[in-house]
Amino acid sequence: MHKIVFVAQLVEQLTLNQRVQSSSLCEDTIKNDEPLNMRHSYLFAILFAPFVSVCQKTTPRLDNDTVYTSCGYKIYAGAILTFGTPSGSMNHFRFVKIYSSDHGHLSGKRVLVKKINGVTVSGIGNAYVHIIGSILYKDGTTDRINLALNFDEAIKEQEGKPAELIVPDDCKIKNM
Question: How do residues 76-99 score in pLDDT, each as one tens digit?
Fold first, then answer.
């Protein structure tokens, strides 16, 4: 939203600068010049609109029961998610919300995705992938889990701690 306001202010300033440079004491000059300035404003807005849309943050999208994340990672029924180390206080995951019963700690565990219940974006722009799946324990047993995963934040290294969700190297996001 701020980028659109900035572009609008920039166009307005350029229009005012053009009017000041080409103004004279004759009112006819100003009246004849006005449509030309409007055309310049529209042309400027049309030329720079693609740059504004390209600069916007991408969010995960759901298409044909597959979530395509902003880094290119795909989450789908049958995929296995491997959890790393929690980055929150008291050894809790900051970017994973578990809605089903307590399963102990997800650290080092794998989750088989059975169903994707959608993608939601919070008011501050965090995208959550809602997943129903099974925790795969080392002894071969499984347990049902219902969770929401803030994928883009979970794959980042947070404050010197490793990522909460382990993904291939080409999908990793480094915190700047």
Answer: 999 999 998 888 888 788 899 988
